[in-house]
Design goal:
- The structure is a single chain.
- With 124 residues, this protein is mainly α.
- The protein has 2 domains: 82 residues, Methane Monooxygenase Hydroxylase, Chain G, domain 1 (Up-down Bundle), CATH 1.20.58.760; 32 residues, no CATH class.
- 60% of the residues lie in helices and 0% in strands.
- The chain contains 5 helices and no strands.
- Helix 2 crosses helix 3.
- The longest helix has 28 residues.
- It is elongated and about 55 Å long.
- The mean pLDDT is 85.
- One of its GO terms (molecular function) is ATP-dependent peptidase activity.
- Pfam families: Peptidase_M41.
- It comes from Tieghemostelium lacteum (Slime mold).
- One of its GO terms (cellular component) is mitochondrial inner membrane.
- One of its GO terms (biological process) is mitochondrion organization.
Length: 124
């Protein structure tokens, strides 16, 4: 959801691409499983999606999946907007250097007290 939210925020709503389509497909499948397989909706409760559902139950499931996706999108937008300046700093550094180490990214994002494990290049 964050890829599409970032496009909307940084590129504008008139410049949205189809790049996030596979992300939406994955997010929709995950949300559907959360609702129909793992009982993660108080409104739907514990149902087994392998059984035929009534139109009423299917409508409830669809509404819960949509709500979960809408809420996730709103949360992604909120996080990006809250950290927009950090993202723009990161973009500027990437334009300058093309590649950054994990520690450089943490420094740009102003994440204190964290370090990333060093990669053993012989394993790559």
């Amino acid at each position: 959801m964050a890829g599409r939210a970032a496009e909307e925020i940084f590129m504008g709503p008139d410049n949205i691409t189809s790049g996030a389509s596979s992300d939406f497909q994955s997010a929709s499948s995950l949300a559907y499983a959360m609702i129909t397989k793992w009982g993660m909706s108080e409104k739907v409760g514990f149902i087994n999606s392998s059984q035929k559902q009534s139109d009423q139950v299917q409508s409830l499931v669809d509404n819960e999946v949509k709500k979960l996706l809408d809420d996730s999108y709103a949360q992604a937008k909120s996080i990006i907007l809250k950290n927009r300046d950090k993202m723009e700093n990161l973009v500027q550094e990437l334009i300058k250097k093309e590649t950054l180490t994990g520690d450089e990214i943490l420094q740009i994002l102003n994440v204190k007290g964290k370090t990333l494990p060093k990669m053993n290049k012989s394993l790559i």
